[in-house]
Amino acid sequence: MPQLDFSTFLPQIFWLFISLSFLYIVLSRYALPRVSDVIEERKDIIAQDIDSAKEYSAESEKATEDLNLKLSEAKVSSQNLINKSLQDIKEDNEINKNILIKEINNEISEAEGEIKEKKETALDEISSISESLAIEILENLSVGKIDKGKIAALSKIDK
């Protein structure tokens, strides 16, 4: 095997050194700069993507804070509106209640007046009916002379 022949060993090392040097020069001048440029471009793109992601994250956090602020303002506003509406309803109900109480009290007073009138009328009718009934009974029994004044005085009912 010629590779193991020590007489040709030194020229093989020489050509190996030249081949490897040529390969190193070609790679270091042409291939490696291109690869390093691609790697550098990728690093730049990744850095830009990270920066834009941070910007978008900051924007989304700001938008979230604004949204939460508006949401809390809307909650406060709606709660105030609900409280105001409830207060208005309570006031309206109180006014309506007072009006109804006045109407009911007026109707009760009118009904009491009517009842009092009917009671007086009924008592007057009872007195006249009892007086005429007593006179008729006494006449039927023929007790004698009937004094209508005494019967009228007896038949009066205290009102």
Give the ordered list of helices and strands: HH
Task: Give the biggest sheet.
Answer: none
Helix content: over 70%
Number of helices: 2
DSSP strand count: 0
Number of domains: 1
Instruction: Measure the end-to-end span.
Output: 157 Å
What structural class results from the helix and strand content? mainly alpha
* Large-scale geometry: rod-shaped
Rg, please? 61 Å
Question: Mean pLDDT, as a whole number?
Answer: 88
Q: What topology does this entry show?
A:
Elements: H1 9-141, H2 148-155
Helix pairs in contact: 1-2
Would you summarize the structure shown here?
The protein contains two helices and no strands.
Notes on the protein architecture:
This protein has one domain (8-155). The mean pLDDT is 88. With 159 residues, the protein is mostly helical. Helices cover 89% and strands 0% of the residues.
Notable characteristics:
159 residues; 89% helix; mainly alpha
